[in-house]
Amino acid sequence: MDNDATHRVLDPERDSAALKALTHPLRLRLLGLLRLHGPATASELAVRTGESSASTSYHLRVLAKYAFVAEAEHRDGRERRWQAVHSVTSTDNAAMLASPAGRSMLVLGRRRQLEHLQQSMEQHEADIDAGRLGEEWHDPSGIDDLMPRLTPESLRELREAITAKLTELTARDEHDPRARQVVLLTAGLPLAPDGTGTPDADAPSDAGSTP
Question: Which of 9, 15, 48, 197 matches a 20 to 30 Å C-alpha distance to 67?
Fold first, then answer.
């Protein structure tokens, strides 16, 4: 997918410094918080992360250097407000896997995404328990754990269809007051057969859906 107003694709050769900047866990967290909650100051982000404002300010400037964040409209002249430039950052996987350094960064990024999913699940459960989310959200929310058999072409088509539908629905709901921030983490990870040339006998063909 090409770069657009909401999606930035990083190339390991052309954007190696930018990719390296994203390997710092606090920078990834700051970027995620800006995407999730909108513009914020370094001090506000320091409160959310438990870091010092000097630390968050430094790492925000690094993110700005590589065009992940930019200054937002200020409420007053006392402190900068920052906003995420893109809602999604991804990489050219084939190019990343072509080198050991790129492969390491790709693995690290995926591990951070799983950590974000864990944090989001805990927040979702806390919001349900505290009554901050109404019952209308109970049925549509959940985590799917499916294991279909697909060709490379079908997997690509599936992911592109999800992206297209998400873009359509996001535009439709942009001004609906009922809309809420939704954490949607999709994964398409092919698994090779075992040494005998057959799939792992212990792996379910369809693990089902977990609410």
Answer: 48
Question: pLDDT per position in the chain (211 positions), as tens?
Answer: 455 568 888 888 888 889 888 888 899 889 989 988 899 999 999 999 999 999 999 999 999 999 999 999 876 667 789 999 998 888 888 888 888 878 887 888 888 888 888 988 999 999 999 999 999 999 999 998 899 999 999 999 999 999 899 989 999 999 999 999 898 889 999 999 875 544 554 544 444 444 4
Residues 6+ apart with CB under 8 A from 160: none
Q: Tell the residue number behind the tokens 């019952």, with chain if given.
A: 135
Q: Please tell me the pTM assigned to this model.
A: 0.69
d(CA 5, CA 174): 16
